[in-house]
């Protein structure tokens, strides 16, 4: 038994020496293990896909929360419900999650390299774009706090804030008439 313990200690020491010998430093006693370098942010979808896949569904949960979310009956099988309000994480939790989703999506809207559905670069260098994105972030957090409080008046205020936030940006960058160039003019002033 002593021989096995000695072999384990020797092998452990050899591994530690080879590890340090390769330029790596052993973590200090009690220190958290080193984290690998964060992967570079990578954009996969255009702005329209982000809107349709993330922001639009979260917004719909918030709009539905204008009626008391605790009154929404869970699905027969909440684990397979495609409706966030009737799923396992339904009701007020779904509204909280929608608020966080809106706030976090503001970060996604500022990732370099995202383009609009027409192929034009997202206008992230424009001062008003940064303001609109911040409004989205703020409205998402207002939704989150309202849902945490389960206060219907706060939810209605947060819905209004979210609606104004979306409209402010859409009025400038999305709603383009045919005379303005239609879809090809989106993401431009």
* Distance, first to last CA: 78 Å
The helix count comes to: 5
Largest sheet: none
Morphology: globular
The top level CATH class name? Mainly Alpha
Strand percentage lies at under 5%
Structural class: mainly alpha
Overall tally of domains: 1
Taken in chain order, the helices and strands follow as HHHHH
Question: Mind explaining what this structure looks like?
Answer:
With 189 residues, the chain is an all-alpha fold. It is 54% helix and 0% strand. The N terminus is likely disordered. It has one domain: Up-down Bundle (Four Helix Bundle (Hemerythrin (Met), subunit A)).
Blueprint of the fold:
Elements (H helix, E strand, L loop, with lengths): L1 H20 L25 H18 L27 H18 L17 H23 L2 H23 L15
Helix pairs in contact: 2-3, 3-4, 4-5
Summarize the structure.
The chain is mainly α and 189 residues long. It contains five helices and no strands.
